[in-house]
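Title: [Solved] Undecaprenyl-diphosphatase 3D structure

Original question kept below for reference.
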Amino acid sequence: MGWIEAIILGLVQGLTEFLPISSSAHLRITAALAGWEDPGAAFTAVIQIGTELAVILYFGRKIGRIIRAWFLSIFRSEWRQDPDARMGWLVIVGSIPIVVLGLLFQDSIHSTFRDLRITATVLIVFGIILAIADRVGRQYRTLDHLTVRHGLTFGIAQALALVPGVSRSGGTVTGGLLLGYTRAEATEYSFLLAVPAVLGSGFYEVSKIGEGSGPEWGPTILATLVSFGVGYLVISWLMRFIKTRSYVPFVIYRVALGIALFVLIAVGTLDPKAGPDF
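Solution (posted by the thread starter after getting help):
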């Protein structure tokens, strides 16, 4: 992987991680269109650390309060009803599905799930589901209404993003909207829920960087830094956008991109299984 390739992939990751359009799909598609090798699931997981560091910076005070209250709740019963401590436990609960499914399907994550025909299909299907959720969701709940059952539902929705094209933020926000949460509240919880999942996945895959045919450390670090800077700007913009706007523009984009992928595959412009993981 060259330095220019690393910068472009870092930009793509930063621009798409927090939008409901799937960053992993866009990394896969960008590489295919440029004629590069598939950067692979390991590279994708590692550079997502950069965008999650942007989440930690943006929500720094809130995350700090949650960690402190959660830790105190382990040893002091009076802290167990604290809203921040409760949120800490609910983030852990919501992280369980992606850990379990990630381990069970890790071989498919590196191979079968990266087929562009699957990516195109889920871009369209989950885009339509997001549109339905955005329209029919009652949007009256805040994070004060979050329960263990709701946390697990959010977590299952997040785990679907193991398939490129679903979108981690798109999946969790869709689940939240169907449960009746507002766009802003569902998005905030999806960001908080992603931190342990993405950091865990990134550090789990980090040993594969620099080995065999995988990307080298230098370009990977550069892509991670670029994704951090761009990701922070996107978070700031998105949190303002969703307070007054719907997800319809993203739905239209997802469906159009999915259709375009099918056309490019049909005419032979893209090989759906190109890349070292296959």
